[in-house]
Write a structure and sequence with these properties.
Length: 125
């Protein structure tokens, strides 16, 4: 139960930060046509998950509870794209090149397909 609470608290904080930072970046861009806010949050989240994940893996800087709060909760709530980036990096680090390529490709193809299918279903009358 403690782990669920740690992830939930981190997720709450990450989601709130995503909302605030993405809105701020979008407003700074002065462009309603391109989602700079989402791009900024995704890139920042990837940088942070690489930094914190590297410290957790290499320097054993965080205990399991802190790791759950930061990596799964906070950054998972901030952007799941960061988790995608970290998991892809872990596959590459482990020299699982084929698996990493499949992971990226499947996310792109299946993700966009799922969006298109969902969007298509939503237009059925």
């Amino acid at each position: 139960m403690r782990n669920i609470i740690m992830v939930g608290l981190g997720g709450f904080a990450g989601s709130a930060l995503r909302y605030l930072i993405a809105g701020w970046v979008q407003k700074l861009s002065d462009s309603p046509l391109f989602p700079y806010g989402t791009l900024g949050v995704n890139v920042l989240g990837c940088l942070l998950v690489g930094l914190l994940g590297g410290w957790a893996d290499n320097a054993e800087l965080f205990g399991p509870g802190t790791r759950l709060f930061l990596l799964v909760g906070l950054l998972g709530g901030f952007t799941t794209f960061s988790t995608f980036g970290y998991e892809t990096m872990a596959l590459l680090r482990d020299k699982e090149l084929l698996a990493a390529g499949a992971y990226v490709g499947l996310h792109l193809v299946l993700g966009f397909t799922a969006v298109a299918v969902g969007y298509g279903i939503s237009n059925l009358r």
